[in-house]
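Protein data sheet
==================
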Amino acid sequence: MIRVLAFLALLALVALGASWLADRPGEVAVIWQGYRIETSVAVLLAAVLALAFLLVFLWSLLRLALRLPSVMSFASRARRRNRGYVAVSRGMVAVGAGDPLAARRHASDAERWLGREPLTLLLKAQAAQISGDRTGAEATFTDMLDDAETRVLGLRGLFVEARRKGDAVAARAYVSKAVELAPGVAWASEAMLEFQSAERDWRGALAKLEQRVALRSIDKAAAKRQRAVLLTADALDRADKEPDAALAAAQAAVKLAPDLVPASALAGRLLAAGGKLRKAARVLEANWKIEPHPDIAAAYLDLRHGDSTHDRLARAETLARLKPRHPESTLAVAEAAIAAHEYARAKQALAPLIAERPTVRACLLMADIEEAEHGASAALRQWLGKAARAPRDATWMADGVTSDHWEPVSPVSGRLDAFQWVAPAEQIAHGRIHSDADAVIADGDERTVLLPAALDQGPESEDAPLAPASEASPAVAPTSARLTPAPLTPAPSTRAEPAPVARASVASSEPVAEPAGLGSTSVSPEPPSGERNGEAPRPMTPEAKTLEAKVPDPKISDAKISDARATGVRTSTGKAEATKRAAGPVVFPVARPPDDPGTEDVSLDDSQAGERHPFMSRL
């Protein structure tokens, strides 16, 4: 709008001037070199204006002629720069897409059009990195050190390459130089903090952390957590030589991070060592309320030296009441009860955990209970087998590495506060195969007699009777589509004489499988080895009589014997052969070794034994 008004004003002035000249006509005469030139004032003004325009035009042509080489050079440089930036842009896209060939090609084009500019060097270095050319990348980063604008970038690239090669000395030198040139650079200060932590220079690391906080290169929450970790690490190193300083550092760490287990455990132990039992208990209980941990439980139980095992059990129950449904509370009470030889209390504590999904620690505790109560038994090995496949308990992990105790720095990456209390990834379990192995767990040094499995003739009623084992028949395994039967032995034409079913016995309260259809039946303890070798047997218990009364004793028909042959069940020719074979351990034709107990849960109640296995073992 202003330009339009200015143009209109100029046009009005020209019109006003022309009108003024028209109202005042005049003549102009010029005499020069004998010539006389006469004209009007208007014509003279028009000639002067035309001459002025002509001079301006000629001067412009002259300037263009003089500047033509530089103009052509500038246009060429502009074209090269445009092509170079296009190559840089495409090269960056290729680097991001992971195309090393295109990245190297565009980096070469960018270097040809732009020369050794910062963006060109960066693209060249990144193209060399994704191509695996470490030497070329290092050379490019070294070239960046010559320019002050790219020096810090070059140091970072050299630092990355040095760490990739495992050259800690060179990496430390590059970081130190970068911190000297640019103290506010986040990567350099963080790397220096990691180096100081790896060297266990906790006080230097704390000073560097404070510097990072002052430069605002780290947020307050992360700085608070790292300060607590560094204080805990310093307290752990000084706990033996300087307990007072270590206690002060541990208490400061607890205030900064109340959920940091190592800090609370160390503070509790140091307070207890100084006689401040109540304060130590409060520190440990506060951490337990946030997240129960075995280290906290161990420190809590060890508050007062010289306590009896029953006092420790009472303290464990006190701790468990703070988190009654947490697995760590259950495990802490169970461990204390086992130490106090109160195995019933330990079983009661473990019952909810066993019913849901027992972990390795729970299975091992059940194995300890079985060993303490009954010694070496099938139930003991069964729990040990379950522990081999049970879900792993949480442990300290950092970058895929597990540790029995907490460490402030990862041994793999050197990262601070890398260890976390997590459960390792579970391995895929083959439950179908393990179920076969569970069916054949038995003591190798004990005589084992098995009931024949029901033939696969479709679903049967729960009260359908089973054919009893013949007195002359050897121990056999149940037929299954997953089992590999042993070679068959032709049976004689005579019919086998039936024999009463042997009474079930076990060495512990652990559930033992029995044939389908018997329902839940309690079993009596196993007789001593002397009775198995022919000595006078122990009188039958009411439970055994109930079991014998439930199992019918019909004759084995010829049709049953034929069906048994078809399914892999072997028959014997006489009592002598049966006695000979029963003298040694039974070899079971299964797809998995007998020491693999399977995946089904084991209850603490003997009344559920009849629903676990397809046949009865150790009769």
